[in-house]
Amino acid sequence: MRIQFIGILFFLLLTYSCSTKHVKHENFFYYNEASGIATLDPAFAKNQSIMWAVHQLYNTLVEVDSQLNIRPSLAKSWQVDSSAKEYTFNLRTDVFFHDSEVFPGKRGRKMIASDVVFSLKRIMDSTTASSGAWIFSEKLKSENVKALNDSTIQIKLERPFPAFLGVLSMQYCSVVAPEAVQFFGKNFRRNPVGTGPFQLAFWEEGQALVLHKNKHYWEKDKKGVSLPYLAGIQVSFFDSKATEFLLFRQNKLSFINDIDAAFKDDLLSKSGSLKKDWIGKLQLNKHAYLNIEYFGILADTTLELVKHSPLKNKWLRQAINYAIPRQELMMYVRNGIGIPAEKGFIPNGLPVDSIPILGYTYQPEKAAKLLRDAGYPGGKGLSKIPMITVPAYADIASYVAKQLELIGIPIQVEVVQKASLLEQTAKSKALFFRGSWIADYPDPENYMSLFYSKNPAPPNYTRYSNKQFDRLYEEVLKETDVSKKKVLYRKMDQLVIDEAVVVPLWYDEVIHFVQNNVTGFYPNALNLLELRHTQVK
Fold first, then answer.
1. Contacts for 382 with CB less than 8 Å, ≥ 6 apart
2. Rounded Cα distance, 405 and 403, in Å
3. Which overall architecture, per CATH, does domain 1-34+197-254+517-537 show?
4. How far apart (Å, rounded) are the C-alpha atoms in residues 219 and 212?
5. What confidence tens digit (pLDDT) does each residue in 344-356 have?
């Protein structure tokens, strides 16, 4: 099978080599986007492929650094009043939009406060139909975003929201040129005009995207050297991960994000380190990633689906959690990519360690006892429980199902397409389902919002409702003391874990395979493609 597989890959590479001219440019960064890029309009930056491209073309008021701290970007400073609802941002005065035909003389003009106001209001405008409109829902009204002068804007929230700066760091909040939006109309999606380190040079959808260095970019490094260092970026769109890997091995891609399961055993040991044959030939970068992979359990007992399900029994849900050997799962199924989720729901990238939290470790004997306590000794009386997953995680679901069946919990794995799973979970029609949550912004609130009873699905896919949890959640939104907030988050997290409405599997990790001639390229917990300090030698 291995020889046959390698033969197929050789054929793919030969086909690529014969049909595509690949001319490498000096100091260019190359990567492949297998899922494609649907738009370059930040108002629709709803997935990683779009966010990566948008981040090169635009800036936001504030941004998140590698340590998940909020730092200045287009806003050089800000103040928050005593009510924790009024934010005043002082803007940089040396920022210019990309050169474009939308400006007189095709020369990019200076960015001012009204541009920021336009960009934020555009997200909230229903005619835009932005996929990011939800980020300000019940937090901010359009009329409460104002330019006080050309370099100052004021934002008044409806209620305190401590994670608001994190929200403003999202790619949805990128500052766009109003002239470009008006000039290009619906075609703005492929004619971006921002203030970012790179600007659009060429885009043939489905073939290649080329960005060139913005020579008028405002940011400099610590030595006063203008950023970015790169001359440009080129993105290809091969949907085959096998082709992507072979191009990387031919040094035609600067890096690959993650890797096809077929190659994991060739490159990585079971502990997640590079195998000896690859050491020195490429770089392996791993970093905590604000993503948790889990199985969710529908918890709304008013639903007929839950009323007639054994999963309404907390002891059974806890038994499921104790029956899974997460350490073994990470080693044999994931090649050490990720950290076993044996604590809370909030992942490792967000340390909230004011008080300890007790999660689930592998204890089959305890699982068996809980199964007896639930009234199903050895699984007696249990009919098969459907577990819904997607094709990419079918192996994970099968592994978990096997472990549960070992203690007597029968599972029927059902593999559906992602769209079907999202529809079923949104309509509360999935009883036991595969889930993941990537942070929208670096704050524990984003994870705890999944369990606030007043939130719909999404994000509350489990339909969890707990009055004590709700009180804590509402209290943390008003709290400004960081230490007190951590205590509240841990209390909420412990409640969710104790109720066992989720089965946390692992806290994810970013994994990058990088060419040896690439420097200044580092992963981050949001897995945002950061190239301002990158060089290709």
1. 310, 376, 408, 409, 410
2. 5
3. 3-Layer(aba) Sandwich (3.40)
4. 16
5. 999 877 766 655 7
- Model-level pTM? 0.87
Homologous superfamily in CATH for domain 41-196: Dipeptide-binding Protein; Domain 1 (3.90.76.10)
pLDDT of residue 314: 97
CA distance to 95, 173, 449, per residue, from 218 (Å):
6, 19, 36
Query: Which residue, chain included where needed, has tokens 């699905």?
Result: 457
Task: Name residue 220's beta-bridge partners.
Answer: 226
Residue showing tokens 């059974």: 316
Residue 392: what pLDDT? 87
Local confidence band at 378 (pLDDT 50, 70, 90 cut-offs): very high
What was the pLDDT predicted at 352?
63
> Structure tokens of 278?
């690859």
pLDDT, tens digit, for every residue of 164-201? 999 999 999 999 999 999 999 999 999 999 999 999 99
Distance CA 443, CA 526 (A): 11
Q: Give the integer Cα–Cα distance in Å for 423 and 456.
A: 13
Q: Tokens 């489990």 appear where?
A: 462
Instruction: Please tell me the distance from the alpha carbon of residue 328 to that of residue 298, in angstroms, as a whole number.
Output: 26
What would the two tokens of residue 513 be? 């395979």
Residue 59 half-sphere exposure, CB side, CA atoms within 13 Å?
Answer: 26
Q: Using an 8 Å Cβ cutoff, are 298 and 499 in contact?
A: no
Burial of 138 (0-12, 13-18, 19+ CB in 10 A): exposed
What burial letters (b/e) apply to 197-233, b meaning 16+ CB within 10 Å? bbbbeebeeeeebbbbbbebbbbeeeeeeebbbbebb
Q: Would you state the structure tokens that stand for residue 311, as one six-digit string?
A: 């999963």
* Locus of tokens 């912004």: 441
Q: What's the rounded Cα separation, in Å, for the pair 396 and 243? A: 24
Helices (H), 58-175: 113-124, 164-168
Q: ∠ CA 482-348-398 to the nearest 5 degrees?
A: 145
Distances (CA, A) of 501 to 79, 338, 350, 431, 494: 39, 22, 21, 11, 12
Number of Cβ within a 10 Å radius of residue 127:
6
Mean pLDDT, rounded, of the chain? 92
pLDDT of residue 15: 41
What's the token pair of residue 329?
């799962």
pLDDT of residue 440: 87
- Backbone dihedral angles phi then psi of residue 387, each to the nearest 5 degrees: -120, 115
The model's pLDDT over 432-453, given as tens digits with 9 standing for 90+, comes to 999 999 998 899 999 999 999 9
Residue spans of the domains in the chain: they are 1-34+197-254+517-537, 41-196, 289-510
Tell me the two tokens of residue 411: 């599972």
d(CA 476, CA 160): 10
Q: Is the peptide bond before 458 cis (omega within 30 degrees of 0)?
A: yes
CB count in 10 Å sphere of residue 294: 20
In CATH, the number for domain 289-510 is 3.10.105.10
